Amino acid sequence: MTIPTWAMISVEEARERILTFFERLGPEPTPVIDALGQVLAEDILADFDIPPLDNTAMDGYAVRAADTENSSESSPKRLTVIADLAAGYVLDTSVSNGQAVRIMTGAPIPPGADAIVPFEETDEPLREPGEAPTRGDTVGVFKEALTGANIRRQGEDIKAGQVVLKAGREMRPSEIGVLSSIGQTEVSVYRRPEVAILSTGDEIVKPGENRRKGQIYDANAHSVAALVKAFGGQPRLLGIAQDTVEDLTEKIHSGLDADMIVTSAGVSRGDFDVVKDVLAREGAIDFWTVRMKPGKPLAFGAFKAPDGRRVPHLGLPGNPVSSMVAFELFGRPAIFKMLGRVGWERPVVKAITRDPVVNTDARRFFARCIVTKGEDGRYYADLTGPQGSGILTSMSAANGLTVIPEDLPRAEPGDEIDVMMIDWEQPG
What we know:
Elements: H1 11-19, E1 27-31, E2 44-45, E3 55-56, E4 60-63, E5 77-85, E6 99-103, E7 115-118, E8 138-141, E9 151-152, E10 163-165, H2 173-181, E11 186-190, E12 194-200, E13 204-205, E14 216-217, H3 220-231, E15 234-241, H4 245-253, E16 260-264, H5 275-282, E17 283-287, E18 292-293, E19 299-304, E20 310-316, H6 320-339, E21 348-353, E22 357-358, E23 364-365, E24 368-373, E25 379-383, H7 392-396, E26 400-402, E27 410-411, E28 416-421
Parallel strand pairs: 5-6, 12-15, 12-16, 13-14, 16-20, 18-23, 21-25
Antiparallel strand pairs: 1-11, 2-10, 3-9, 4-6, 4-7, 5-8, 17-19, 19-20, 21-28, 22-27, 24-25, 24-26, 26-28
Helix pairs in contact: 1-6, 3-6
């Protein structure tokens, strides 16, 4: 029996109903370097200034600015070099009238100095790579230095007691750098969701195992696991369940301690599509068809765990492209919500299609395409070839998905369409 499109729910309704099942997970201490993509659960305060002391922004000479007044290449001011100072060390000796300290980037400014003259503005000989520095007892300054020149002031980045990162901030590489700069090795972040992933079907075998005639290797579990990891979750593979209620039930039970269970296949109307049967018996079905292509047979509900928790279940279609597209549209927002992250929406661009995009059955059509930017500055979309939901290489070649509305039967070459970018490096 064909399901009429009016009996299916929209992508937006499906997503809204799915997200009501999820909440942000609790906080946990995590090493800073492992917290990338997670969300801070607490404000982070600094207990010292950064920089902790005034320091030099350049290699050169620490001087008194007044001693360089009217300096020029034709009439350099010559100063007595009293010391060398490397980064990580301090100099107690004060710089007096007519004196200079040869200083390396990051080293604290010596007492008495109020400016840095770069090597390039002195008569110190330019040395080749690997050549030992040549320092005389004096140095000629070719250019007048202004007070404060090339000095990074104490606390100009962070001041003691300052909230450097607020709770709710997503941890990016720059946030990890900030935390490391104040000596933090561990941070409280909302934990990553664990997503249990189960493939179903007698025709499926694990990659690397012997495959008999009529069987295929399991691509879905690994592509979905990769998406889970890319979106910030922790995937756990439960293996492959045979097309029996007993085996499927046993394997689902092994994943009920996870934050979400994802299955692939077994959610359409075939004789051996038993996922819906098990879901109905072990939990509750919320919906199982969505007005989209690919990905119409999508089951969602919740299993009841032994501890009384409701474990959300996303039943993906068996075709690999359908599985990936459906997880992109519904699994990604769910993981973001559990992480406490916002902004799960992908960028959508206007692009000129170079190919006809035919929408045959009044569902929203997410065709795989490649978006590039033309010489006129506009975006152009080319389909990645045949759009069958079993052609996984078409997904590998794509950086975007067309968003063809349900009521648009066809987009012609030259038409402007919406494209959701799934691999957003500025198309060029």
